[in-house]
Amino acid sequence: MHRDDLTDIKTNLNHNFVRTCHYTQDKYVYDLCDSLGIIVCEEVPNIKNQAFSEDVQEQQLREMIRRDRNHPSILFWSLGNETTNATDSKWAVEEDTTRFIHARHIYNNSAGDYVDHTDEDMDMENLLRCTVRGWYNKDVKPLEPQNNQETGTEEFQHRMARIMGASQRGRIDMGNGVMWLYADHGADREYKYSPLKHVNPKGWVDAYRIPKYMYFLWQANYCKTPMVFIHPHFWRKPYLGTVRDLTVDSNCDSVILKINNTYKGTLYPTKDNFHTVTFNSIVIEQGTAEAIGYKKGTTISSKITMADTASNLVLSSNFLKANAAGNL
Description:
alpha/beta; 6 helices; 3 domains; four-stranded antiparallel sheet; TIM Barrel; Immunoglobulin-like
């Protein structure tokens, strides 16, 4: 999984910088970053709010730096978020004077004497927003674009990333930031309006590594490989016969839309529209919607096909068979 994730981050998202989570990563992560050419901001173990003594905190930090300091990919040692106790900057610089010491949102002037890089130099949680694919009892939950961490749909996150002041800490075209975070993961807290408890849903991919809309918005704006992605939200049976707008992300020069192979129009993704185009007033039909992108002689397609009415359900396995005794 480490290799798949970091290869995806480097190759498919065109990122060259990662900030680790607040625990010591497997050594293999840094081997991969060395080989892939990914710059790393490594977080020290975040145990300040746990029942550990200062001696244990110091031991954890020193052991991590001694283990990882020979990795050329590591540029920063980071002391965490919103801390009122960053005195471990002294321990970090005692172990390694060759790297930046980063800390984000230091409170009460407690950074210590050795922090030389903060969130004012680089926002380490740009475009931060909780996202889910929908709610159990409805398709759309009305949420206003506010500067907080309330949970919204993928469509909401996608829209907020293109509006100045709407996303948590910036718009997708604002530089000098790290996008938090790559994948949904378990958490010991609950996020407002999120239907999944104890899950941090800020990822650009879900826990199964299925991309959310922000993933494709980023690709359209910052990746060179031709891509096109048609948003599937409205192409479902509850919307049959209604008139909706269909959104497409693409870095192609032009995009055409076909509904059941019938031409519906051509639009042009540009930097000014965040490489996102909207085909207005499309009647939702049973069948297939296809966006076709053209870029310098290359043609690429994205299709969504509406599921037909279910008539039968069959469970099967291609790998294992069990007899009545339960033996495999």
